[in-house]
Amino acid sequence: MSIGSTEVAAFQMVLGEKEAELTHAMRARGGITIEKSADQMDEIQYASERDLAILSVDRDSGLLRQVRAALARIADGEFGTCADCESSIGTKRLAALPWAQRCIRCQEAADQSHQDDAELADGTAA
Ligand SMILES: [Zn+2]
User: Fold this and answer.
1) CA 124 – ligand 1 centroid, Å
2) Span from the CA of 76 to the centroid of ligand 1 (angstroms)
3) CA–CA separation, 108 vs 44, rounded Å?
4) pLDDT by residue for the chain (126 residues), tens digit each?
């Protein structure tokens, strides 16, 4: 464990805020109404907006899951440890991505083997 308790406390705060933010954003989007229009072009426009909204809900809920998992790892005292090789993830990587579950090497390997599980916030996911 290379991360001090002060840093873990700071990450816990960041993660807590992120969780609140995502929860709030998803709740706000839950109120999306599907508007009906006589104009067909508008219909298409609304449909694509709706699809985009659904996409971002998917993305946010995936991220929310990762943020909650990270909070659980803090509670378990496992925060900052790679889920695959159990080496320390590194504070730099965690600062950029507090919910990272793997060290950069294992993450790259995981991204290559199954793209679907890629970390969404990395910007590498489809
Ligand atoms: Zn690893």
Assistant:
1) 18
2) 18
3) 38
4) 468 889 999 999 999 999 999 999 888 876 555 555 567 778 888 888 888 888 888 889 999 999 999 999 999 999 999 999 999 999 999 999 999 999 999 999 998 986 655 455 554 444
The alpha carbon of 65 and the centre of ligand 1 are apart by a number of angstroms equal to 20
What are the Cα distances from residue 58, in Å, to 39, 53, 86, 115? 29, 9, 29, 15
DSSP 8-state secondary structure symbol assigned to residue 73: H
Residues found in the chain: 126
Range 12-33 burial, b when 16+ CB lie within 10 A, else e: bebbeebbeebeeeeeeeeeee
Q: Please enumerate in sequence order all residues whose Cβ is within 8 A of that of 29, keeping only pairs 6 or more positions apart, or say none.
A: 53, 56, 57
